[in-house]
């Protein structure tokens, strides 16, 4: 139903995009299945909110705030789960601090982009938790 748009001559292909076009890239292998599931769930819900649903003026404001809250709390949980995984963070910083010859430029770029996204997610934390995060 969300792939049908009467104003467009072609149906949208959201399921195809999520199943085959969008690719999940693990810069450091994630062993925690709960964390991995939370990341995928958050991506899908964010996609639905940003791409699939109509503009806020057309859609129920209450539904959008519910989705926003869901995404917010998922991001908080993702940050917490990553912070708790000492192996993951130590491996990330170990690879980032390696010499230029050790790590290809593309890999280093992916590591930095992950760290940037992780820090962006941390903005959802409460001020005291955010301070602990940066420490």
From TrEMBL:
One of its GO terms (biological process) is DNA damage response. Pfam families: PP4R3. Its main location: nucleus. It is found in: Nucleus. One of its GO terms (molecular function) is protein phosphatase activator activity. InterPro entries: P4R3-like_central_dom, PP4R3-like. One of its GO terms (cellular component) is nucleoplasm. Residues 1-135 form the Serine/threonine-protein phosphatase 4 regulatory subunit 3-like central domain. Keywords: Nucleus. It comes from the Eukaryota. This is Serine/threonine-protein phosphatase 4 regulatory subunit 3-like central domain-containing protein. It comes from Scylla paramamosain.
């Amino acid at each position: 139903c969300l792939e049908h748009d009467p104003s467009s001559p072609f149906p949208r292909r959201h399921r195809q995009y999520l199943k085959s076009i969008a690719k999940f890239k693990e810069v450091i292998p994630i062993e925690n299945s709960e964390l991995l599931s939370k990341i995928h769930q958050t991506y899908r819900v964010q996609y639905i909110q940003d791409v699939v649903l109509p503009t806020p003026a057309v859609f129920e404001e209450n539904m959008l705030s519910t989705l926003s809250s869901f995404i917010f709390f998922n991001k908080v949980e993702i940050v917490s789960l990553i912070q708790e995984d000492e192996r993951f963070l130590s491996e990330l910083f170990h690879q980032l601090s390696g010499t230029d010859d050790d790590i290809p430029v593309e890999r280093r770029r992916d590591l930095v982009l992950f760290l940037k996204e992780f820090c962006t997610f941390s903005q959802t934390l409460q001020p005291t938790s955010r301070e602990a995060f940066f420490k």
